[in-house]
Amino acid sequence: MIKKEMIAMLLAGGQGSRLGVLTSKVAKPAVAFGGKYRIIDFPLSNCINSGIDTVGVLTQYQPLRLNTHIGIGIPWDLDRNVGGVTVLPPYERSDNSEWYSGTANAIYQNMEYMEQFNPDYVLILSGDHIYKMDYEVMLNYHKAHHADVTIAAMPVPIEEASRFGIVVTDEDNRITEFEEKPEHPSSNLASMGIYIFSWKVLKEALIANAEQSNCDFGKHVIPYCFDQGSCMCAYEYNSYWKDVGTLGSYWEANMELIDIIPEFNLYEEYWRIYTKNDTVQPQYISADAKIGKSIIGEGTEIYGEVYDSVIGSDVTIGKGAVVRQSILMKGVVIEEGAVVDHAIVAEDVHIGKNVSMGQGEALPSKLSEKIYSFGLVTIGEKSVIPDNVTIGKNTAIAGVTTKEDYPDGKLESGEYIIKDGDQA
């Protein structure tokens, strides 16, 4: 039997509904980040940099792009004969066929995959956070404390604590209380959704909770282990970690990359972030172009002006066009004279001539005030914006739009256009 000390199970099935039209056709972990990466590149790179060579990636929602991106794991040096990276979608069994329902249920359905490696420890990860962490250090901590379960946790502002699972610890960092998204949190130490389980403990907890509907680590498995008297410790983490689950946090995390000395450095030699890279052409910056404090992807052609922005690969920005404080993903075309301000533009979008985006006052979104509430323009992939239209703030567009979709040539702040077949 193959023996691995620790394997990783990476949960990457989420829709990421708080990212609105950005995730209508792609799973959240496959969303572009920082010009050339996808969100899942970060936990995958952490695994290989931490010496973990066996990773199961659990996919479900819109998995095609994610599967294509991961392939056989070559960019992360995870193309191994034994172990390596394995994509684990839900599959039909003889007795029943069911989707993954909850984070722990997804892991439970892949018990057989884990058994074949007979691991001592299992690392559970989320596929939608931006951070660098050495999981080997966390494992050493788990062993030193003789823990059954170790939860990575970080201090958060107390007013935000009710969004997280909260742990209360004693002076030895042993967990004395665990509260899932409490209304009145009794600590500000938040679970990061990164767990190391001793295999026997995980297996028993998953089997015991198998019948729970939407079986989840925070709601079921962690409280079960706690009630069983398992030794549970918190591993406090104090470096950069960002949950890019909202349009605001996603935009902010991208913008932080272009600071002169960024808090999160993508280019450290000793802890590299790896990704699948299809483009090899150089950029082309015309003599008239102006660029200030931006990330520009490979194969991109710039004839206009770009300031404080993150630009992906194979993007074209026409003459006289101005892009400010925006994220443009791969393959976006901005025609001549367009102004793009505070926008997130998904892959392969075409923006017509003299379009003006991000104008006027930021009014509440009529589509979803909760999702589109950061003064941004959000455009779903493969959308088309016709020439000479003006688009306000807190707006969302998905699909091929025409002049007729813009009364008086405008999409007012807070309005939206979602074409048939596209989702909000």
In brief, what are we looking at here?
It is built from 8 helices and 33 strands.
What does this structure look like?
It is a single chain. The protein is an alpha/beta fold. Helices cover 16% and strands 28% of the residues. It is built from eight helices and 33 strands. Strand 9 and strand 10 (175-180) form a beta hairpin. It is globular. The model has no long low-confidence stretch (mean pLDDT 87).
Offer a few descriptive terms.
424 residues, seven-stranded parallel β-sheet, 16% helix, globular, alpha/beta, single chain
Number of helices: 8
Q: What does the main sheet amount to?
A: 9 strands, mixed
DSSP summary, beta strand count:
33
Q: Rg to the nearest angstrom?
A: 23 Å
User: Uncertain segments of ≥5 residues (pLDDT<50)?
Assistant: none
Structural class: alpha/beta
The percentage of residues in β strands lies in 25-35%
Which shape, going by the Cα principal axes? globular
Q: Assembly type of the shown chains?
A: single chain
Q: Could you report the average pLDDT, rounded to the nearest whole number? A: 87
Residues in helix, %: 10-25%
Distance between termini?
48 Å
